[in-house]
Amino acid sequence: xxxxxxxxxxxxxxxxxxxxxxxxxxxxxxxxxxxxxxxxxxxxxxxxxxxxxxxxxxxxxxxxxxxxxxxxxxxxxxxxxxxxxxxxxxxxxxxxxxxxxxxxxxxxxxxxxxxxxxxxxxxxxxxxxxxxxxxxxxxxxxxxxxxxxxxxxxxxxxxxxxxxxxxxxxxxxxxxxxxxxxxxxxxxxxxxxxxxxxxxxxxxxxxxxxxxxxxxxxxxxxxxxxxxxxxxxxxxxxxxxxxxxxxxxxxxxxxxxxxxxxxx
Length: 264
Known about the structure:
alpha/beta; five-stranded mixed beta sheet; 11 strands; elongated
């Protein structure tokens, strides 16, 4: 059952389902949207909690997580960016729990996560999918529950807009993997509000990426095959606020790399 508070709600635990609740960190920016979502998962109130993405080293936010979570079985991290993992060590100290991530250097008192791994924590069955593209170490957590499948996507899928990419080929493969999830799965992103049907969102992302690739191909026809990412951004994103061009340039660079690797 959903709580009375809707997204965004800083510093207040908001129930999204019977097994998932979110604490929104007060760190809004053009990259984090309203802020970082720290997810708390448990099958029942008497179970210990799993915390996903504790956010920055923000004492107020970390203390709020610890108070809301109570006993913590594990801290899971979707990827290495500071707005997701920087506070993990401090939270681990506060609650006495291990930290697990795909990157072994981010782990504390536990092994690294592996693609296809599954485990039972907080009364829940949790599977790990390696979903690179935003970063090489990005993972998605699939939580199976009789009520509904829950999918924690980090920055691979956002609650609104599209994510910045490091490798488009990897990202397209990750989207295709996520497109195989059940219809109606509840998406729990690292930023933005929850997604009612993650598979539908993923398929929209795939269509959007194909559209952007066609726009970049068109830009290269106009500007020349050797045009750099900045010139392509100015051509393709001419109707977008220039304040967002920096993030767009990272994605365009990934698209250019992808097309050039394919000989396009």
